[in-house]
Amino acid sequence: MTLARTRDLVDAAVASRSAVLAFNVITLEHAEGVVTGLERAGVPGLLQVSENAVRYRHGHHEPLLAACQELGAAATVPVALHLDHVQDAALLRLGIATAWRYGVSSVMVDAAHLAYDENVAATATWGRDAHAAGLWVEAELGEVGGKDGAHAPGVRTDPDEAARFVAATGVDGLAVAVGSSHAMVTATASLDLDLVARLAASVPVPLVLHGSSGVPHDVLQEAVRAGIRKVNVGTALNVVLTEQVRRVLRDDERVTDPRRYLAAGRDAVADAVAATCAVVLAA
Ligand SMILES: [Zn+2]
Question: What is the DSSP code string of the chain?
Fold first, then answer.
């Protein structure tokens, strides 16, 4: 199978009033675990590489994207590649220019930290370039807490402003602030489901939920029912991967072969992905 395209997976989610799950990848073990989990659940999904993940690779986006490309293309379910939370102009330029090489089919232009007018201008400009390269474009409005953005606790996206933002920028998907927050290691956030429904009614493009690791699975399911069409999951995978690495190293202090603990971490990622897909996408 070749890599799927984000646009097709999101369109399918819209048509079935479901969602596509998008998982953030930091290491090769993340990517392998995510693909295994998606295959076990029998659902399509996205591998996402964020600007932060690229920064961890000394600013090089190629090695991890190439690995994701190979893994996604070999998967038995449709897998697409996405560049997540890109703020840096140089990486945006490079990511858009080289997307074709790695099979990347979407990008999140993250200008939500800017004032509204500047967010509109930056998103519209980068969005045009990304569209010219054939990419599906996601942007964010309202800053989801945790990165002090639209995903900060207490921040909410206004439905009328969101509709104006989409019209002014031409983006294909919109990340909204509805109560979730980035980097939460416990699933204790509550979502404003009424706001999700109002946003879904007024915004003409699919809604994206960031910070989903902090939201209980049953609430995520309700968010999808209310209109969320792309669900981003990152931190929850890091939590289970690290827990298992810690367990293996604690149980046997003589372990030196990284395969021993990384295999446990990778298995935990696969389990978490399969479980998340099963619950969130349950009809
Ligand atoms: Zn995010």
Answer: -PPP-HHHHHHHHHHTT--EEEEE--SHHHHHHHHHHHHHHT--EEEEEEHHHHHHTTT--HHHHHHHHHHHHH-SS-EEEEEEEE--HHHHHHHHHHHHHHTEEEEEE--TTS-HHHHHHHHHHHHHHHHHTT-EEEEEES-BTTTTSBBSTT----HHHHHHHHHHH--SEEEE-SS--TT-SSS-----HHHHHHHHHH-SS-EEE--GGGS-HHHHHHHHHHTEEEEEE-HHHHHHHHHHHHHHHHH-TT---HHHHHHHHHHHHHHHHHHHHHHHT--
